[in-house]
Amino acid sequence: MADPTNESKPVRPGAPSHGSQDRKLRWLVLVVAGIVIVAGFGIYYYLETTGNRCTSGPHTLIVETYASFLDSGSAPAGARAAVFGGFENATHSHLCVEYAAGDLATSLLTSGGPRPDVVVGLDELTAPRVDAAGLLVHYAPPELAQVSPQLVAGLAPDHSVVPYEYGFLGLDFNVSFDASHGRPFSTGNYLQTVAGNRSLASQFLYEAPPDIVGEEFLAMQIAYSSSVLHQNWTTFWHTVGPAAPTATDWGTGFSEFSAGAYASFVSFTTDPAYGAYFGPAGATNTSVLRSGGTNYSWESIYGVGIVRGGVHNLSLAETFEGWLLSGPVQKTLPTNEWEYPANATVDTPGVFNWSVAPTSIVPLNSFESPNATAANLPSWILEWQSAVRG
Which residues, 6 or more positions from 196, have their beta carbon under 8 angstroms from its beta carbon? Predict the structure, then answer.
């Protein structure tokens, strides 16, 4: 999922668990032998294999995550060494990190082999599915006291997973296009403007379910129409669906939007911060939904959980959960994940001022519990499919 505007840039991630594009399953083993200590962290030899799974043990923790975890900063190897190597150094343990092929929930639910000890990257739509299958150990680390109760409630009130980062969906737009067309995206109600103008609808690129961003956008539009506007949510899709283009996944859509194929795109509110960090700043901007002077958007919350039936060292797994919420790890997230740290005591860098302040946004997922949203999603997708077909 490369950013086509600058090939030297790191990959800009979508939501962490967005595994809609097939990826070759990789296993990354952090080898403690031969460590060179630099700035307090080890430099590790990364061994990638294609046929041998990690082996758990009393002092080894298997962590399954998404391929882009900590991969979108200026020095991905250093960020991963700080997080994974820092844990190894602090606990005198070994980590074996597996990168899932596809989304994490499907990997856990369909795997016929040994399960990992810990999973990093389940979100508010996928965690309830995995928890319903009885695959998660409920645990609240002490560090959770530094995380907003609202984030906990929005992801998993039962602590089946605990939040380590979060962000909001953003409606990206090309600034030049917006300025030359009367500012349809930067002023007024974004979705209503698109729905009322077929030409703009043809410039509105969104991810189609089952891509996870597409599912989040669908849930966002439904919550906004139903709970804020008090309208039938399918009306929007009957109007926009036949004209609006779709992307199969976030990465493909972001590439097309960045290349100028479309003027607007469903993405994340931190995109302007990312653009300002790597440059050039200001070519694109992002908006959220507005009504009655209030900002609304969908809050994506990503969590870490202990896997039932996989974990061999429960105490070490619990310590790892707490480690991801600790200050040193949380400080690496903003400019390596382009998400907000869940730990409320950790500040974001100044470049995040380019983005819509998260404190100014009402989370649309707060109108319904994560379990209810996950349960309703399959029927919503069927209704969406019917509406866009016309």
Answer: none
What tens digit of pLDDT does each residue of 99-109 get? 998 889 999 99
Residue 199: CB atoms within 10 Å:
11
- Tell me: pLDDT of 12 over 60: no
Residue 374: pLDDT over 50: yes
Cα 47–Cα 53–Cα 58 angle in degrees, nearest 5:
95
Q: Using the Cα atoms of residue 140, residue 142, residue 145 and residue 151 in order, give the sign of their dihedral.
A: negative
Beta bridge partners of 45: 31
SS (H, E, C) 109-129: HHCCCCCCCEEEEEECCCHHH
Task: Report phi then psi at 289, rounded to 5.
Answer: -80, 145
Burial class (CB in 10 A: 0-12, 13-18, 19+), 190: buried
Res 54: pLDDT = 73
Q: How confident is the model at residue 57 (pLDDT cuts 50, 70, 90)?
A: low
Pairing mode of beta strands 264-268, 162-174? antiparallel
What are the structural domains, with CATH classification, of the chain?
26-167+301-353 (3.40.190.10), 168-299+357-389 (3.40.190.10)
Tell me: the pLDDT tens digits for 78-114?
Answer: 999 999 999 999 999 999 999 998 889 999 999 888 8
β-sheet bridge partners, residue 294: 291
